[in-house]
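Late entry, evening session. Most of the bench is empty. Finally got around to the prediction I had been postponing all week. Sequence below, unchanged from the version circulated by S.P.
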Amino acid sequence: MGLTTTKAPYIEQAVSNGEMYIEQPYELYSADNHATWQRLYARMQDHWARYANQRFLDGLETLCFEPTHVPRLEDVNRFMAPRTGFRAKAVSGFVPAFDFFDCLSRREFPTTITIRDGQSLDYLPEPDIFHDIAGHVPMHTDPAFAETLVRFGACAHLAADMVRDMSDREERRRRLSSIQNALQRFFWFTVEFGLMRDASGQRVTVYGSGLLSSYGEIVHSVESPTVQRYPLQLEWVINQHFEIDHYQPLLFIVDSFDQLYEQVATLEAWMKAGKLDYVTPGWRDMSQADVESFLEASLRPR
């Protein structure tokens, strides 16, 4: 059984103990777990070469993944930390929204250590180590992208500060829910499912981890005539709800990570101006646990 997603006693025990941040017990990975990593990694090679952003490809080379074995996070961090200060941080599963953002602001990336069942390579509703390490982490070796993540993570602290002095708890909750909807939509349409023009400006490439870790959707995102692709428009992104259980019909394109960084700066300015207080409600609103994580943060002393 090893460390197979939804079937790992080690994770179940950690969750039962209330442990969010854990160690990676590498010896628990089974031969099947390593074989699944090998299959996932091998079949993405041609797709990455054809569709991935060059910064991602550079990151893969930097990290020196072992194609036949699940990576050790300590090895990943040994290659990554000297370049951008980012480190993969093992977690037992769900990380409340504020804590996730806070990790990013401290150059830590919450990383799932389980790997999907080898019988279900194509779709997994929850993240696994292939999504987190092969999809996300190569981008964290790029300084411009890393700085964008750090600034984006700091938005959580700004959100908590924005409501800290509000006496009406329900209004504080409503306002935080709206802000968090805006933040999670921005993350979804950029970090998870973002597209970027290449240096020539003529070709669209992929930098979003949800696409980079999906054998089918990375092709669909660039090639399919059914996908709507538009230049990133912040007012549209923060008011656009999304669904997670099918290929995305709408994607946004940026020209560079400098542009993405400036979009985060605009997001901050809009938050301060109250423009995120009434974004469009959607199918995937803020969970109770996420709300509570922000409420608790807003009650802490500055």
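Two things to note before I forget:
The two ends are 45 Å apart (CA to CA).
The longest strand covers residues 87-91.
Will write this up properly tomorrow.
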